[in-house]
Write a structure and sequence with these properties.
Elements (H helix, E strand, L loop, with lengths): L1 H25 L3 H16 L6 H14 L2 H10 L11 H8 L4 H11 L2 H4 L18 H10 L10 H15 L1 H6 L4
Helix pairs in contact: 2-6, 3-5, 5-6, 8-9
Amino acid sequence: MMLYLSGVYIVVTLALVPSSIHSAKTGDCEVCVNFLGRFYQSLKDNDVKFTSAEIEKAFIKACKDAKGKENRLCYYIGATSDAATKMINEVSKPMSYHVPVEKICEKLKKKDSQICELKYEKELDLSTVELKTLKVKELKKILEQWDETCKGCVEKTDFIRKIQELMPKYAPNTAKSRTEF
C-alpha cells in the first residue's frame, strides 16, 4: 500500500512540474514576443518580401515609432540611431525563414539577457483609479501615453485638471463614467 501511494505521489508531482515550468516561461520576453509578433503580422499584412534586407529596413522603420519598453528593445537589438550594438540580423534572418518570434526572442536572450527582462508597465484603469491618490510621476505617465504634455503645470492639481480635460478625447468611455469632475 505504501509503495502504491508513493508511486501516485511521484506521478502527481511529475504531472505538475512541467506545467509550472511552462507557466514561468509564458511571462518571459514579454515585450520582445509581443513587439516582434505584431511586427511579423504587419509584414504579412503589408505583403513585404521576406528577405533579410527588406525585413531589416521595415524593422528599423517600426522602431522609429516605438515608445517606452519597445523602444528600449529596439535599442538593445541595435535598430535605433543611438544604439551601440547592431544585431538586427539576429531578428531579420530568422524572420525571413518564418521562425516563430518566441524562438527568435530566446536566441536574442542568449546574446543579451536584458532583452527578456523588459516588461510592460501595468496600465492604470482610469475608470476606477482616483487621480488624487496617484503620484505626479504617474500622472505624467498618463499624459505621456496620450502623447500630451502639461506646459505650465507645477502642482499635482494642475496635472489632474489636464488629464480630466483630455480624458473625453483619449478615454471617452471612462470620462462618461467618472463623477470626479
